[in-house]
Amino acid sequence: MELKLNQSWQAHISDEFKKPYFKQLMQFIERERQAHPTAIFPLENQVFRAFDACSFDEVKVVILGQDPYPTRGHAHGLSFSVEPDVRPLPKSLINIFKELQSDVGIAPPENGNLIHWANQGVLLLNSVLTVRKGEANSHAKQGWETFTDEVIDQLASKKSGIVYILWGAKALEKAKSVDPTKNLILSSPHPSPLSSYRGFFGSKPFSSANSYLAEQGSEGIRW
Known about the structure:
This protein is about 35% helix and about 10% strand. It has helices at about 5-15, 20-35, 50-55, 90-105, 115-120, 145-160, 170-175, 205-215; strands at about 40, 60-65, 120-125, 130, 165, 185-190. It has a four-stranded parallel β-sheet. It has a two-stranded antiparallel ribbon with strand order 1-4. It is globular.
């Protein structure tokens, strides 16, 4: 896989590319793409899209997901986001839009592409950046988690005043290096249908994030 990373991120995480675990990860993905040439998502040029869409210096909010949607045509490198023509929307995304409307009064958008969030400083980061068609977590425990842990560690050690929106226990564990006295951590159950009614609905992450950003003298996100 060709490793093209947004220049603003290179100084912070490009050293990871040289480490043995990452080389092994790339070998694994290459084998996967050879064995399943049309069934590894997202497309190769979209794997690092979260970094392309939101530079290191511009990160205001981090929303952590688990791994890409394993349905063809859905994943495009941004956590929880889908390509504009995807219908019906994933159920977790539908619930996110329901909470968005309840929280800040924004009606569900026409499509599920969240690139407009990313372009305003929302890092839509999955813990694992690739997946095999129809098999959720099929690329877990191959090295991606180590890489994305380093992404969070770099943000936590070099930036403050960031809002971390953590949906579910796995996301909360992922951000264990974040200092809650220097950033805002918003945690709630995951928006999936299995857990959304246990506290995701009514958690008001979008208004809470913007209130905090305003306190930091930063412009809020136009959700």
